[in-house]
Amino acid sequence: MGQTIRWGIMGCARIARMQVAPAILRCPNAHLQAVASRDATKLSEFRSLFGDFTPHASYEALIGDSAVDAVYIPLPNSLHREWSIRAMRAGKHVLCEKPLALNADEAEEMTRTSRECGVLLMEAFMYRYTDRMNKVLGVLESGVLGPIRSINSTFRFFLDRQDTIKEKPELGGGSLYDVGCYPLNLIGLVTQADPVSIAVECDKPHGVDVNLSAILRYADGLIATLHCGFNAFGRIHSEIIGTDGALLIPDTYLDDAGEIILQTKQGSQTIAVLKSDRYSEEIRDFSSAIIEKRCPMLGLEESLRNMRVLDRILDKIP
Q: Quick check: 209 and 174 in contact, CB under 8 A?
């Protein structure tokens, strides 16, 4: 493999076309080797956008391509388990879009397969690769907030596209899977624990949740709230509140320049956030992890813990 990881993309999903394929091209340790799609028109469009790569007419052909080292999977949520496992059994490292699976049982099977096959598997939470999150973690590690008592995080947008997979229950649609998993990941990153109780309110008019709020209570007294949806105006914002201070995080899951705000008894402090290239950094880290034979930034134990909590939230939805 040398020092460059040869990537294959499974399908021509919107996120692959707009974000991940361009990110691979920007990475010095990554190369876009192959793309698979059953739609010849989409493959042709990819060729016009991203230059020369090996086109495959099936996912089976992609994972059977000996020139591919790692596979990016942006398929509908209901297909994550099947194709991640098939790719890993073919010896490919797998970067799988969030959520890693539909439930914890599927995620555990995927994790076992990763370990049995000796390949890497990571859930693609690209927001963790931003300067914004680096600054947030720096504040948390400093201890300036004191013991954390409250976390509130919202990720919602207005879905104005018709007949998308986000609205199809059989494909793993719904706002919790689509954007609610981001606040859930952030809450898990801060708490490093399972909640002792969960309460959920949800609007589910067409078989999938379009507006959901969950309250998570932890053994140390911390209470976290998660809000997500795609039936109203967009909102991305979080706050982490401790006994000694509060951290306000506008645009929590984005990678544009901005600021976070630290509030303590000494006053309010603005911390500048630099523009980041979250998808490119994600590809770079995963590729480096393969080359260096190490774990990438996001470990599977974290994904498994969050999937267990996601299961409990889903169980509360009527």
A: yes
